[in-house]
Amino acid sequence: MPDQTLSMEEDRPLGPALRNGWKCRCPSCGAGPMLRGYLTVRDSCPVCAEELHHHRADDGPAYLTILIVGHLMAPLLLWAFVKYRPDPLVLGTIFCIGTVALSLFLLPRLKGAIVALQWSKRMHGFGKRA
């Protein structure tokens, strides 16, 4: 009978990893910051030394940000225009500011969540043993 303890790897639950990633924290320990600056992922966690340089979160966070912001702001824009009939310049200014603010809020959080998803599913080298 083969030794199953060598072949089994520790569990990496998806839910806690995604919550930590959304908070821009290390998906492994949840304590260390994942990002250095606004969008740069650290090579490793300063708290638990988990390697994070394996990530491949290139365009995914930007696509998801555009998808979410577009699906939220377009119906809201239509509703505000039909209900209140504001001046177009006022409407455009308010929605431009709202769109930029929501995009800047979501982008690092979605990047953290995508890196955490890759870590949890052992994608792109996250499952290799040192």
UniProtKB/TrEMBL annotation:
Keyword Transmembrane recorded: yes
Write out the entry's keywords from A to Z: Membrane, Transmembrane, Transmembrane helix
Please name the InterPro entries in this protein's record.
DUF983
**Spans traversing the lipid bilayer:** 62-82, 88-107
Q: What is this protein called?
A: Uncharacterized conserved protein, DUF983 family
